[in-house]
Structure formats: structure tokens, C-alpha cells
Fold each of these.
Amino acid sequence: MNLTLRIWRQQSSAEEGAMVTYRVEDISPDMSFLEMLDVLNEELILAGDEPVAFDHDCREGICGACGMVINGQAHGPERTTTCQLHMRHFKDGDTVDVEPWRAAAFPVVKDLVVDRTAFDRVIQAGGYISVPTGSAPEAHATAVPKEAADFAFEHAECIGCGACVAACPNGSAMLFTSAKVNHLNVLPQGQPERETRVLDMVAAMDDQGFGGCTNTGECATACPKGIPLPSIAAMNREYLRALRKEKSRSKG
């Protein structure tokens, strides 16, 4: 398989970038997209050129590091992570555009690498539970209803890749934030911070420069882990509930 790649190259956040065209040949359809980029980078290094910078870590669809926009779609034409996208989904002779996440809260560091520490700051605002000191409690000491457990597990699958932000026309992080809020708020262990968690995490999300949600649904469509769109509505209900409690306490 021979491909024409148009890849965004940008030396740093302080410099302007541009699409640069490359050719790769004899690409196996069984390669992952990142393995194809590895082949390109080997050729660039042998030619004395600078390789394309891109994020990656586990290459198993778990860590969320490998985000990039491929032909205008977050992670590419399949609902998966870029590292799990295989070249069989492209055709011989295709032209493939490869760009970094495009969002104000994700500034480009270099080439396809963006700074996603805005996500870290959202989690730091409330993505935790109180843990008493001492020995660990018995695993079965706190019962969790199956419905709550299923809901929590569904949202805990979020890997923080940022595809939801990249796909959203507003650059919103509502799906990410709702996943982090909801998977803790339904568990007994998450109840002590239930109100402060949602208020603080939403405030942090706004502070980081993410756009507002207009329910276009592109976030859920792009999410490789299938975080559902109703997750946002669930967080909105939690947010309004917390606001009412806060106002009630301030009046009292």
C-alpha cells in the first residue's frame, strides 16, 4: 500500500505551522496507524530530516496518549484510538491528512503533540474521594447497588484522550468532565465530596478555556470508549442539585 501523507508540522507553540507532504510505500494493511508513522519517521531520520513528533505510550488503546485528527476525524475513520486504527481502513493511493487536536485548551507543543494538562487540572479540582488513614476496609463492607456499579464502570472507562474536545465544534470538555464526575458521584465512597466535586470540576473546566456545550453530540460519536451523551445531562442534574444545596446553606 502506497500513501500520500499531509502532516501538520510545527516546531513549537510560538511558531506557525503548516501541512507538509510525504510519501510512504509498501505499507502493510496490518500495521497500526502509529506503526505507519514509525516507518515514515525511520525514513526521515535516515534522510537526515527531523521525525514527526507524536504522542504515544501503551499502544493498546488504554492510555489515551495517541490522539490526532485523521482526515478530519478524531482518531480517524473508526471508533477507536489511533494506536488501534489499522491501515486496512485506508486504500492504496489515498491521501491522508494528519493534524493535532484543535482546541484552545490544547495548545500545540510540537507537530502532532498537544498540551493536555488542562484535563489534569479538571481532575485535580475534584476527581478524588476521601480515604481514611489506617488499614484498608474489607472489600465487601460497603455494598454498591448493581445499577450504580454499572453506571460507574461505564463512565470510568474514559481514558482522557481528548477526542471529545477535538470533535466538538466548540472545543467543549463536557463529556470528559461528566465521565469523571458521574463515575464517583454514584458510589458510596464518593458521597462526601458529591456537591463540591461537580461544582469545582465544572468551574475548573471553564477556567481552562474549554468551550460551552451545545449538545451537538459529536463528542460521544468520537469517544473511543463509548461514553454516552446522556452522561452530560446526568452531570447537569448533579450540578443543579449541588447549586440548590449551596444556595440553601447560604440562606440558612
Amino acid sequence: MTVSGGPGSASLNLTVAHAARMYDYFLGGKDNFPADRAAAERVLQVMPSALLGARENRRFLHRAVRQVAGAGVAQFLDVGMGIPAAPNVHEIAQEVIPAARVVYVDNDPLVSVYARALLTSSRQGCTAYVEADLRAPEDILASDEVAGTLDLSLPVALSLVAVLPFLLDADDPAGVVRRLVDALAPGSVLILSHGTGDFAPEEARRGVEVYQHSGIRVRVRSKEEIAGLVPVGMTLKEPGVVPVHRWGGRRSRRRDAEIGVYGLVARKL
């Protein structure tokens, strides 16, 4: 899971665990530090599904972006991108549409360093990075990077992958999603994934406790709660809200409890 927002996320403190760097560790990346690795290992002790969940979540993002670009959407707004891990959204989208334009958003200073260094676009397309907080969607939408890269009068794919668990109910995650989607043109698409305790509730509860003891606020949600994050006026694409390893017609022998993440794609009418 990645985070865009949360206490302390605007300062670079490598002695304290950070969700984006823990997620990088789960993915097998190298852009993490001892505090992140120690916290991630504590999570895995009580919630082994976190490892497979992170990796299947990433595969879901890849499949969804490829499908959305294949349907002709050439603009992407990826909020809560986390530390870049190839292939990134722009690399997949620009394989399908070389002129695809992508704006990434996060507010971890370390993510900013890597993003600005690594996110290079195709000649025909464009990428940009915004350091902003998901809880202030108007700031994202009003940024020079969004204005200079995306045409909001045309369809945009909004990616909120594994970021909304880091918004508590008091942050009004459904309202945040709605405010972002309201600014997008008809035909725009929402790509969303979210951790759940539906399949292994006790394991998920213990995992959440480890995150919280590490100073990272997090909340898993049920299928019904996750479906409720999709704004009115959007229609779910088949197969609806399903575990990420099953989305897109993919067959998997993995049990849902081994993954613990739902994914969905919805289209604005």
C-alpha cells in the first residue's frame, strides 16, 4: 500500500517506518530502510497476505491501465503513486498509446526524489509529478502540473490504488473521491483498490495494529464500504468489486484470504 497524506508524511525521517517504503519492500524493491523493513516484517508475521496482496495489487494496476488505455483513454492521474516501480503507469499506457499523458501525485519527499529522477516519458507523451495531499483534492486539480499536462475536458483515468486505506472515515474518503471525479469529463475512469478484512478478519485486524503501532494510520474496509467509495454517476465495469487477483477475467488458484485486496474499475457516465 502507498500513502499520500497522513501525519508526518511531509517530512523525510528515515528512522520511522513509512507506508510507501514498506510497500516497496513487499514488492521486492530496494528503496526502503531498516525501520521500514522491520515494520514490514512485523506485518508479515501477523498478516502474511500482505506480501502477495501487494504484488497482486500491482499486477491489477498493470492490467487495469492496459485495458483502460486499450479503450482509448489517453490521460492518467495517479494519486498515491508511491516509490516508482517499473513498469509504471506511464510506461504501460504509452506502450498502448505513445502520446498518453500521465500526472503522478504523492506527498512523501522520498517519492518526490525518485519520481522526478525516474519518470521519463515517451517523445509523443508527457509525464509530470505533483507533491500534494490526497485529502486536499482541489489543490491537486489546481496544480500547474495538472493544468499543463491534462485536458480535463477529455476523459481521464483516475488511479487510487491502495491509497484510500490511509484515509480514515473522518477524512471522508468517499467525498475525496467524489471531488476528484466531479472535475473529470464524462467517459473518465476510476481505477481503485483497497485492503479488506472480509476474508481473514483476525489477520487483517492484527496487521492494522502493527501499522498503527508504527505510527501509520490505516483502515481496511468491507466490500460494501469499498463499493460505496464509487461516486454516484459512475458504473462499475465487469466483474465489479472483486479480489484483485480475479479482476479482468484472470484465473488464479490463490485463495481470496491470501490476497485481501479488492479492485474495481468504474466509468463516469
